[in-house]
Specification:
The chain is mainly alpha-helical. The protein has one domain. Helices cover 41% and strands 8% of the residues.
């Protein structure tokens, strides 16, 4: 159980990143997911991810560094 004083996980809006939007086709663009969930979406659906702009690539690297010891499990 989470402590009441624990900070909530950072969230990201699906529509803010083109490839995340592509692999989250079942979600609305304004849907917010936690950063760990975004990482899981990228990892599960990597075969559908196309070329990324620098901003999104940096975001994916941030997710891997923060939640997966710098590794993207694809």
């Amino acid at each position: 159980m989470r402590k009441p004083s624990a900070r909530p996980e950072p969230v990201v809006r699906v529509g803010d990143y083109p490839q995340l939007r592509t692999i989250s086709w079942q979600l609305r663009d304004d849907t917010e997911v936690s950063e760990p969930e975004a990482l899981r979406l990228y990892e599960r659906n990597w075969r559908f991810v196309g070329p990324m702009d620098e901003r999104e690539a940096a975001f994916v690297q941030h997710l891997a560094d923060t939640y997966s010891a710098g590794r993207l499990l694809v």
